[in-house]
Amino acid sequence: MTAISRVVAREIIDSRGNPTVEVDVELKDGSLGRAAVPSGASTGAREAVELRDGDPARFHGKGVRRAVDAVNESIADAVAGLDAEDQATVDGAMIELDGTAAKARLGANALLGVSLATAKAAAAAHRLPLYRYVGGVDARLLPVPMMNIVNGGAHADNPLDFQEFMIAPIGAASFAEAVRMGSEVFHTLRNSLRAAGHSVNVGDEGGFAPDLRTADEALEFVVRAIEETGYKPGTDITVVMDPATSEFFRDGVYDYTGEGVRRTPAEHADYLAGLVERHPVASIEDPMAEDDHAGWRELTARLGDRCQLTGDDVFCTNEALLRAGIRDGIANSILVKVNQIGTLTETLATIATAHRAGYTVVMSHRSGETEDTTIADLAVATGCGQIKTGSLSRADRTAKYNQLVRIEEELGTQARYAGREVLGLRR
Ligand SMILES: C=C(OP(=O)(O)O)C(=O)O
Ligand SMILES: [Mg+2]
């Protein structure tokens, strides 16, 4: 009854106004799963390939008709009749059909839409919420939300070199309380930025994008907003950064163009260590660039016992890249973005490998998102304990937080909030 009977893809629009892929998978019993595919701006070089049309006549060349056609004209036939419950076989059939290492022929955006929609259809057939279908009886840990309240880098039109400044309410009693605390700080920050004469327009992920030049300035605003709201920085609410350094690592140096300073890898590492000394920063994502493996190794040895160091571009949710990183002493945490690898099966394998090695896992959105809330369920399903999905504004971001509020309510007394157990204990 859970055999796949129909697969249909279409081109829809994402939160940046760019086209993306949405897929419906229908099963023989009539159950339906639907998934929309996100898209990054500061992408890792080793991500699976997002197929774009390149035809300037359509959506300024950003159309995804080729990926949509790949689903409708070839993947649909390849997975028809397969059991949606057998996720590994469905994903394996698509990987084989594509035949390339980076999913470049059919597109990782085509594969991911089918992969996630298949899981959702199977969950629907069992009348189970997605988090329960994927995670089983132990799926009851609500993640700490990392809420991105100051945007910079590739996600905003301001001078900030660092891409993301986030708050994580580790001291909350529940996920719902964490979201409430975050929204309070968000509004305090809005008032204080405005009072200081800054714009309160928002960037791609819904955080403010003020004309600040340095990470210290941004962190001071964020920490002050936590205090002024009545919370203790580092204890109630801790701070997380994603400098997304691959974006400004050029010719062997970290080129802070907004700040107007070039730092060698050693100077850049000193600078990060100083930020961790001066501010309650519990986690840094991509502190070193994807190609600066020596820098990554040195920083992990230097800061890894005090700070979560999360690999995004350096791992690309790719199990083989993660294994190499574990072997080489790179990072102590991995960011997981489903579209970096392109199937649910591979995503779950990467997470399992990280957990076995004692690496923490942060489930993540992309800067281009839709109303799809799959990652909220996957965060609970995998018990990873941390999610970053933007700010407390923009429906493409709040959709995920609101889905987690619903999941927490549904779990009732079974629900546990990850809190300080997963983040902030190292300091
Ligand atoms: C979410 C991120 O941005 P993007 O989706 O643009 O890669 C990130 O770098 O972690
Ligand atoms: Mg990142």
UniProtKB/TrEMBL annotation:
Cofactor: Mg(2+)
Annotated positions binding Mg(2+): 242, 285, 312
Signal peptide per UniProt: none
Metabolic or biological pathway, per its Swiss-Prot or TrEMBL entry: Carbohydrate degradation; glycolysis; pyruvate from D-glyceraldehyde 3-phosphate: step 4/5
Keywords, comma-separated and alphabetical: Cytoplasm, Glycolysis, Lyase, Magnesium, Metal-binding, Secreted
Top enzyme class: lyase
Listed EC numbers: 4.2.1.11
Pfam families in UniProt: Enolase_C, Enolase_N
Residues forming the catalytic site: 205, 337
Domain Enolase N-terminal as annotated: residue spans: 4-134
Reactions this protein catalyses: (2R)-2-phosphoglycerate = phosphoenolpyruvate + H2O
Binding site for (2R)-2-phosphoglycerate: 163, 337, 366-367, 388
Cofactor note: Binds a second Mg(2+) ion via substrate during catalysis.
Compartments where found: Cytoplasm; Secreted; Cell surface
GO CC annotation: cell surface; extracellular region; phosphopyruvate hydratase complex
Biological process annotations from GO: glycolytic process
Domain Enolase C-terminal TIM barrel as annotated: residue spans: 139-425
GO MF annotations in UniProt: magnesium ion binding; phosphopyruvate hydratase activity
Binding-site positions, substrate: 155, 164, 285, 312, 364-367, 388
Family to which the UniProt record says this protein belongs: Belongs to the enolase family.
Function: Catalyzes the reversible conversion of 2-phosphoglycerate (2-PG) into phosphoenolpyruvate (PEP). It is essential for the degradation of carbohydrates via glycolysis.
Stated name of the protein: Enolase
Gene name for this UniProt entry: eno2
